[in-house]
Structures
1.
Amino acid sequence: MATIYEFGFFFVASKVGKTGLSPTVDITDIDGNVLVTAGNATEIVRGTYKYSYMGADGLTLFAVAMTADATVDAQHVPAMAVKQISTNLDAAISSRAATGADGDTLETLSDQLDGAAVPGDLMGLANDAITAGKFDEATAYPVILADTGVSKIARVGADGDTLETLSDQLDGVTPAMMWAYVTRTLTQAGVSVIAAVSGSDITAQRGDTLIINLTGLGNIAARTKLWFTVKLAYADLDSEAIIGIEETAGLTVFNAAAYATTTDGTILVTDPVTGAVTITIKPAVTKDMAIAPNISGDVQLYPSLKYDMQFLTAAGAVTTLTTGTFQVSGDVTRAVA
């Protein structure tokens, strides 16, 4: 490949460009090799002259234009090649693009894209563009348009019910009607009734599976231990607790004594971020919770029990999450097995 190197020169006489000269040009490369001797420069305008040299690519060239006219301020004017023009740039760039495997060129691709959609264009389907052969309504369960113009968005039940027929059946049904129905069945097992939690107070049924749901305790994700403790007096030791459960150890204390079957009482954290826990105590334990002779109507209550839930972090920080009263109501049927 070859490159055309363009040189420019400016001759001045009395501070004005000197015209009408016939300068000759010598050119050397950066190593001092002489490439041109006495080449003829061409006048451009107002004392400027040019000389073009074609040589190998990537050369660093120096040129000197010389004139015998003694009226100029400098008879020798140097220049350095500052612009290189490749002789291969002799055609449109598009003509140099590779042709694709299917024969496409930049021009044919441009033609194919003329009128194509661009971001923001509205897209539409021609009428009848989606045909039965391309879309099986029976298996796809799409949103379809019924004869009445109302969209159906649910499948028809096995007995033929649709959303419309179900709505018709429910018209006029009130809560009072359900409670007035002659036959009503309690579907929840009696031994799994969840303990009543009112504010910070818990009421447990003796002999039942005790399930206590506590929520909104705060973030306990950093806990290393989590305790649920019920005591008769604040001064009692943890080993003297009525109930002592730790999340990982289970039920370790019951009625002020060590308890061996630790799985009879558990703490399950259902949401550590919001602080939601479920405490479960089996009837083998609750059947032995004491009932004192403090009578309130038909319900016997153990007096003045207190509980709290507390957790420990790896840094040694202890935080009490909630406290309140814990009451045990008497049961009629004492059997648990």
Note: The mean pLDDT is 82.
2.
Amino acid sequence: MFALSPLPSAQLFVAAALLAAPLVPLTAAFFAGRLVSYTIYVTAASAAKHSLGSIIKTSFSSALGLAVQLAMLAGLLALLRVDLARILTGRVSRRASKSHADRVPTTARHPDRQDRPAKLTQPPTSPADSIPKPQEQ
């Protein structure tokens, strides 16, 4: 499977090392398979170049093709400027604090600020830790 597919080969060799498989025959078989698969890829690319080369060349050199390429590059640069970690962390913390505020009993809230839950002495380490436990009496 790994020899005839474009999948990365690192997993194959890690599995072989974990199983203590002999690496010399495995490596020889792997390279023989890759030689066959890469020959098939080069042959297919050469055939595609001869049949689709002029179509691709005209589509990428036309004004519309260039405009689409520039728009895609601008979109890629805009995507790189977005701080996804901050956005995802902000959403998670807002959800966690909102759900935590819904679960805190009203007796545990600040007397002067009824809209916020009481401050915890230690920050919770996981969402399960932020759920208040019933008090034993």
Note: Helices lie at 10-18, 23-61, 63-81, 84-103.
